[in-house]
Amino acid sequence: MYYSIDLAGKVYPNPNYVQTRKRINSLVDKYLSTGILYSRLHDLPTQFENPHQRHWQPIDWKAVSDEQIVGVGKNLFITFLANAAEIETPIRHYALESRDYLQTVHPQLARFMGGALTEDGKILEIGVWEKEERQHAPVFQKIYEKLTHQKLQAKPNTVQGYQQSHDLRQDVYSHVLSRIATEWSATSLYLWLMAHSTGELQHAIAQPLQDEINHLAKFWGIGIWAFGDSYITRLKGMTKTLIDLLNHHQSERTHSVEFGFTNALYAVELMFTFTRVMARLNYWHKSLNLTYLENLFGQAPVFALP
Questions:
Q1: Rounded to the nearest 5°, which phi and psi values hold at 254?
Q2: Three-state SS at 69
Q3: Which domain range does residue 238 map to?
Q4: Whole-model pTM above 0.85?
Q5: Could you tell me the CATH number of the domain that includes residue 43?
Q6: Helix or strand holding residue 22 (H, E)
Q7: What is the dihedral angle through the alpha carbons of 244, 247, 248, 250, rounded to the nearest 10 degrees?
Q8: pLDDT one-digit tens code per residue, 97-151
Q9: How many domains does one find in the chain?
């Protein structure tokens, strides 16, 4: 089925690089506007008082088909889907890892991430972040099944877990950078997948994408409040973290992506997407001053001060 206009704007049956960039830019403007980023950050204090899960739009699974892949080979597209499913699978472990890092310095954020536990580790409450994120792997597995007519045998990503040192500030800061880098990576990849899809396939990917942007905005904003780091300092730390994460993921993935000559253009497109997301965050970052953030979250913690 052919769609003239979709969530990324005009549909090009065989898009060139410039046309794909145009679709990526359209998606960034649509889903990462400063208004949306502010809205997602403003939602975080209300989550502390009244936890609530973000609503998803329903997906018409019968309407999803491989004919809705646009401008990229099916094999490469489903490889990225499979990788996303594997990375998203161990969400409970990610949630507990974040809870362990944050429990001492910000119990409310720790609860948002990892919920509440009894003293012996039994679950009393699942965190909102986990409730939202745990929907992602099943969606990507379902898309994979619809496109290939095979069930995905996903190999879950390994999670390092809480690694304590003698520097609490650095431990928490490194973890926050890791979370932001992960959300940045997922956001960029899902935007790229949406630029190369249309119809109900594109709509299905848009659901986890919006969760990732939601969580990216929340961590980005509260991270500035907590640490007061500059954009450049954060970018350097995140880039290093992202490279480490990508190397880790690449070594564990069942379906590896080879960016040889044939796929070089798609590597360039992905780099462009990562850059566009970060450029939008930089623009937003400039307006997130301490006065504004303290109105949201209260007085900044001591370890944020120089």
A1: -70, -35
A2: strand
A3: 5-304
A4: yes
A5: 1.10.620
A6: helix 17-31
A7: 160
A8: 999 999 999 999 999 999 998 888 788 999 999 999 999 999 999 999 999 999 9
A9: 1
